[in-house]
Amino acid sequence: MGWERPAWKGGFYPDELPDDWLLPYYSTQFQAVCLPAPVWQAASSATWAQWLDDTPPGFYFVLEPDSSLSGFPASERVLLATPEWSAAHIWRLDEMPDLRALAQCIAQHAATGEPLFVFSRAGNLALLEQVSTLKQVMGY
What we know:
Strand order of the largest sheet: 1-2-3
Mean pLDDT: 91
Structural class: alpha/beta
Order of helices and strands: HEHHEEHEHEH
Shape: globular
């Protein structure tokens, strides 16, 4: 959830990395970020334009929905995580930390070409790094 994690400074993020470079750095290590509704709804059009400009074309913003369902840019890189879509495309590490089961899910998604996004609300960096390695080993 999000890329601004103070606990990641000096570990994942280099100590000297300026705050406005966190998202570009994050996007070099992960394929997507999940944003809670209060965060993406508070972002202005200029902020959204900057976020999209600061990240590569294959990077996605996955938005947790709320009742308004408005306020985000129309972009193929901005995805609304409705319950139905989430069930098919999101693996939540905090709820399902079993990497063997995740490997099976990755294999299924790789076979169909469907995207799979892996997120951790808690920001368990060690587990996220294991997932990144798993996806690389599996060629996904």
